[in-house]
Design goal:
The structure is a single chain. This protein is 42% helix and 13% strand. The protein has four domains: 6-130, Rossmann fold, CATH 3.40.50.2300; 147-311, Rossmann fold (3-Layer(aba) Sandwich); 317-387, Helicase, Ruva Protein, domain 3; 399-404 and 415-461, Homeodomain-like (Arc Repressor Mutant, subunit A, Orthogonal Bundle). The strands form four sheets. It has a five-stranded parallel sheet, sandwiched between helices. A five-stranded parallel sheet has the order 7-8-11-6-12. It is an alpha/beta fold and 468 residues long. It binds adenosine-5'-triphosphate and magnesium ion. Magnesium ion binds next to helix 7.
């Protein structure tokens, strides 16, 4: 079944009109038939008609300025015209007109309607891409046209002109590294190095030497002097990724560099001056980590001179078609494939999905589809199952599992009260949302909170809830 596209049928022959209408209704399309041809263009606008299936001779005789009016419709009108052989010839040069001859063959009609829908999808996407201005593509392919992304691009451009330390926060896959690279690219330091360090990927005992370097003989295996990433990034930008995973002893040392702009390589007796711009990133909530004393408060303030938060993809859904189109073009070129695009239904599913893995997940999906399908159009049947419902399962645990405050016992070995309270609060919030089907106003009432306070908490705690 093809759902949701609207098709207008125009034919003075009642039998043909009823047959086409019944056939396309059975296929799942919404059908419009104007009472009178004077209402033809009116119906197209009011009912958001995508495709017209019409006897072309009938249209041309009953609406004398049909061609002029049809040309002004936006988005472009797709016409499937049939009539006596030869009538369609008038439209040979129009790419948005598909022609058939009478007597109508319903199989041919069905495949032409499919082609017309594919054409319409491509045109809509082209129109979206055509809207791009310089704010939608910042640098190094950072793409977005939603209001939050435009604000982000504005902020990045301003920040790049300064030397201030930047802390980028955001869920996994939102584009934190891309943003850090964009800051470097747009800054006066762009002729020098951009050096990334993933603080979570390097074992704790090696991270210090990796960052600050070491002198020969300072530890077993230190056979020669070695420059660290700070030195490599001199006059450039050092990107400290996953900063939330840095251990306490290194946090102190990093704080010193940020304060004094100098550091000591492992085993060295003298400190070394350095001129680096620090950009740090994390997908953890650093404020919470500070509250739990997992991250130094003084370091947090030093790092977050300019805090930047990249919104998750589900909060900027209008960027999805633009990203899909861009990734499609890129992977088609890389893999020499010719996947044409996504049907409207498939795109709608992608736009209503919650994208827990954000842009990275979307990029990976498009790559997989280009490899597996390779040509034609992606329709819902080509999408993996998790994308078909457009919703994520609710993360809320069942009510019976919740402890009541009187059940709580202090464990023998003690407890971190901040994280226990935090966890308890999260569970109550998710339960309230679960009970109210995601209605934040009602959930706030259950929790005796203001709606705005609940929304603030959800944001701060990075909690998400999907209504069923
Ligand atoms: N706005 C965007 N436009 C185009 N591509 C993007 C955008 N945001 C992210 N990407 C792509 O998505 C992928 C993930 O981006 P990136 O590595 O910057 O995310 P991240 O936030 O650092 O993720 P993680 O927290 O997992 O390290 C990359 O391949 C990147 O090119
Ligand atoms: Mg990253």
């Amino acid at each position: 079944m093809q759902a949701n596209s609207s098709i207008l049928i125009a034919d003075d022959n009642v039998k043909t009109r009823d047959l086409v209408s019944a056939f396309l209704t059975y296929q799942g399309y919404n059908i419009a038939c104007p009472e009178h041809n004077a209402l033809f263009f009116d119906t197209i606008q009011k009912q958001n008609v995508d495709i017209v299936v019409a006897d072309i001779a009938h249209l041309l005789t009953t609406i004398p300025d049909f061609l002029e009016q049809a040309a002004t419709i936006n988005p472009l009108l797709v016409l499937i015209a049939y009539g006596n052989s030869g009538d369609g010839m008038k439209f040979d040069s129009c790419e948005n007109v598909f022609t058939l001859t009478k007597p109508l063959n319903l199989d041919e009609l069905e495949s032409l309607v499919m082609r017309a829908r594919e054409y319409q999808t491509l045109k809509t996407l082209d129109a979206e891409i055509g809207d791009c201005d310089q704010h939608q593509v910042l640098s190094l392919s950072m793409i977005g046209k939603s209001a939050p992304m435009r604000d982000l691009f504005g902020l990045i451009t301003k920040v790049a002109a300064s030397n201030a330390t930047v802390l980028i926060q955001g869920e996994s896959g939102t584009g934190k590294e891309l943003a850090a690279r964009a800051i470097h690219q747009l800054s006066a330091r762009n002729r020098n190095n951009f050096i990334p360090v993933n603080c979570a990927a390097i074992p704790d005992d090696l991270l210090e030497s990796e960052l600050f370097g070491h002198v020969k003989g300072s530890f077993t295996g230190a056979y020669a002097n070695r420059a660290g990433r700070f030195e490599m990034a001199d006059k450039g930008t050092l990107f400290l990724d996953e900063i939330g995973d840095m251990k306490a002893n290194l946090q102190v040392k990093l704080l010193r560099v940020l304060q004094n702009r100098e550091f000591e390589p492992v085993g060295a007796s003298k400190s070394q001056k350095v001129d680096v711009r620090i950009v740090a990133a994390t997908n953890k909530n650093l404020e919470e980590q500070v509250a739990k004393r997992d991250f130094r408060e003084d370091l947090y303030y030093r790092l977050s001179v300019i805090p930047i938060t990249i919104p998750p993809l589900r909060e900027r859904r209008e960027d999805i078609p633009l990203l899909v189109h861009t990734f499609l073009a890129r992977f088609n070129a890389d893999k020499r494939n010719a996947l044409k695009g996504f049907s409207r239904e498939a795109m709608e599913l992608l736009c209503s999905y919650d994208w827990p893995g954000n842009v990275r997940e979307l990029e990976n999906l498009v790559e997989r589809l280009v490899i597996l399908k390779g040509s034609g159009f992606i329709t819902p049947v080509d999408l993996p199952e998790r994308y078909l419902s457009g919703k994520q399962p609710s993360p809320a645990p069942p009510v019976a599992e919740q402890p009541s405050p009187s059940d709580i016992q202090l464990p023998e070995g003690g407890i971190c009260i901040n994280s226990a309270v935090d966890e308890f609060e999260n569970r109550l919030i998710l339960q309230a949302l679960n009970r109210t089907g995601g209605n934040k106003k009602e959930a706030a009432l259950l929790l005796n909170l203001k709606r705005t306070t609940l929304i603030e908490k959800l944001k701060k705690k990075n909690l998400t809830f999907s209504e069923e």
